[in-house]
Amino acid sequence: MSNHTSSKISRRTFGKKTASAASAAFAFQFIPSRAWGNLTKPTMVGIGSGGKGRSDIANSELAGFDIVGLVDVVDVKKFGANKKNNRRENVLIESREAYPDVPFWTDYREMFADMGDKVDAVTVSTPDHHHFHASVMAMQAGKHVYCQKPLTHGIWEARMMSEVASQTGVKTQMGNQAHAEDHMRRCVELIRSGIIGKVRDVHTWTNRPIWPQGFANPPQKQKVPKWIDWKQWVGPAGHVDYNENIAPFSWRGWWEYGTGALGDMACHIMDMPYWALMPGAPKNVKAEQAGATEFSPPINSKIVWEFGPSEHTHSRGVRFNWYDGYVDAHFDPEIWALIKESEEYNHPSPSILDGRPFNEYGCVVVGEEGKMFFHRQNNNWVVNPTSIVDGYSWPAQSLPRARGDDKYKNHNEWFDTIAGKLVKGQSNFELAGPFTEMILLGVLAQRVPNENLEWDHKNMEIVGRPELKKYIQRDYTKDWEAEVSGAGKISFAAL
User: Fold this and answer.
1) Is there a contact between 263 and 150 (Cβ–Cβ < 8 Å)?
2) pTM for the whole thing?
């Protein structure tokens, strides 16, 4: 693929446009000149305004953005006066009430067509299967992008997102918020300085999934409520009939739309050791698990990636180990939920934990001289044995620190790159893309458990397994197809 991407993206008008206009394609004429300047009050549209989208929009406003539009497949103004709203629907209502005078769309393609150069940046806080399309459309139109984790739904998409970000030069940031916190950056510096010696193993774990996962059949079809654009929610992925057990939350437990516990949490929990080691592409990966089906990721799993040696790792390389899910759990289709027989969830052995208690998620980095115990939400990291710090020469700060309180740091850093105060955010797509690829390779391994899969990074394929290509680069539904031209430009059907 060429290293050049065109700045133009073809599009069609949608919805409220006339039939003749809807049939005529036209192109963005620009990457806006002000996208390259030092903006003091950049305009922003939130794509996905409920759930995580609500906090991404609010935190971006606190960072300094001017919110000029909202996009969501749920139009709360169609709820009706007598509807009893749940917590997640109330968040959508709060978003609309917080910005009552900005335009609203259910289709981000319409938003791009309508807004043109009136918007400088977008947040993308949709289900995973929309991340790629919304973000690439934005970047190729010169919009800066903050996209929630995991960066994409598939490996090929992550590779393309990195390339488009590099080629367009827009400012990007992935939404793994703790990446911007001071204690994570300090631990990255410490590991690189050799506080525990060369690293040979990393162990990370979570108690998720906390949503339904491991079901063998879709839920029964329900009537689509008038307040949701279900066709747009499904978008580029395969069709499923509407059911409230799919959206707005349980989509993470569907292969077609989410990436399970691994995709949801690994971008948080594996972030510090991956960033500290920058191990390159894995050589191979293997998953062991229970409860996966044709439709849904496993109820629990253990995954191992093996990497070759690099600057901060053992001479034989490093292994990343992942543990998720409850050990004694099963899916109950009658109540559409996971039933836990005990509170025990997958985690490293007591010998790895050195007898320390484990929380719902965590990380242990094992070096030649000791271990570091790290939790992304706590700044009280620990090394064992503690004697390794005796006479240790503490390194100077080498990573920039984001401004503000921890809750907003990641959004502040993204804003400051756009405002010209920083060159780039530390979780930009050129770093987040390869990291996401590595995690999604584990998601692929969950589709073919108990097999050691050799990864050909350059050609993006599992060696000797061409039938697995469909898990690396998915087919998109009609009107959402993506095509890469000889010039490296990604274009989308019917846009």
Assistant:
1) yes
2) 0.91
